[in-house]
Description:
Blueprint (H helix, E strand, L loop, with lengths): L19 H6 L1 H12 L2 E6 L2 E6 L2 H10 L4 E3 L1 H5 L1 H4 L8 H11 L5 H19 L7 E3 H18 L7 H13 L9 H7 L3 H26 L6 H9 L8 H32 L1 H14 L14 H13 L6 E5 L3 E3 L2 E3 L4 E4 L1 H4 L19 H5 L19 H16 L2 E5 L7 E3 L3 E3 L4 E6 L3
Parallel strand pairs: 2-8
Antiparallel strand pairs: 1-2, 3-5, 4-12, 5-8, 6-7, 9-12, 10-11
Amino acid sequence: MPSPLARPRGPVGLPFLGVLREFRKNPADYLLQVSRQFGDTSHFKLGLQSVYFVNRPELIDELLVSSPGAFRKSRMLQRAKTLLGDGLLTSEGPYHVQQRKLIQPAFYRERLAGYAATMTQLAGRANTRWKDGATVDMAEEMMRLTLAIVCQTLFSRDIEGDAAEIGQALTDVISTFEAQLLPFSELLRMLNIGPMAKAAKAQAILDTKIYEIIRERRAQGADNGDLLSTLLALADNGEAGMTDKQVRDEALTLMLAGHETTATALTWTWYLLSQNPNAEHRMRDEWKQALNGRTPTFHDLPALEYTERVFAESMRLYPPAWAIGRQARREFRLLNFVIPKGGIALMSPYVMHRHKSFWPDPELFNPDRFTPEAKAARPKFAYFPFGGGPRVCIGERFAWMEGVLLLATIGQQWRFQLAPGHVVAIHPQITLRPRNGMKMTAHRVLA
Length: 447
């Protein structure tokens, strides 16, 4: 057997900096360029950090499914513990497994059926906010809507009056995740200056709101059948239960992850539909046949198959979780090279979803890529917008249902066109938001 290579080929960059400057300009497109220049495995330096970029389905399967114990979360999410605590997004090892088991029942099928009615009810409320011919920022509108949905379904809390403040605080938290990787981020946090001051203010707002919800629910003593009731019941169950701090960590994590990713996916979907009228017409034909103008329900989901394909194709082109990083706990051999202890294995749905071996004409919007036959012909990790393995997104089924129901509920009453002159560009942070928002003109659909 040949001796392992030190590392695969890749861009060299500058001493000490590596390719950090080029990477930070637009990391998603930079990784796409690297994959096309150096192939499915490559190595580069981000400052002093060694990164091993992997873009082959079977290798991603090995990293996420077969060998999860060899890796831990990326440095960004390790540092994010200062903001999120030990929620599902940041926790590791046996503690993560325990918390996931406790929270999983909130996403069982019988719970999802109940959530569906709340989703369509709040989407109907959103339908009344817009005026025919008005220009709206669909990125902001979808953030507002999905935040209301996650708070109502998981915490039984109507946050309409607080939506703007909570939404801005969550945005501020996300915007400082990258700053956690700066060389002097810990010092900035201690001094409470720069981006760390912004994060601290946002965290204080969110903590106030969440602990208020916890106190109110305790005072009521009611079991609303939601996630918060489950968490508080465990917190009251003695030594094996959860403290208020643990409840806060999980609530904040799910509030953040549960609205940000779906809102981003829906924003890109409205944009893509505005650019692809044939797909929009096919989707409207499906709604007429399946719904005939009524609000969709949980039981309508199987009949909204083309709508789901549209949502899937949108997440192929613009996956909200556009990159997944893992840090090696020990030396790990992959093919004919070794990822050293502390090295970062980096995978990107954004790049994999444009791999020409699995996606002909990858920049073309084509929902028929997701017919049952087409899906069966591709390897599993040619498409992974929700990650994979033991840490696959716990709310994946929730998100699929939410995306389809919101498209059908809103789309039967409104269609959206990109506002003239609006520049569309990606802004890869922890999620793949549009850089300039998504200004669109709302047009009421005539019956």
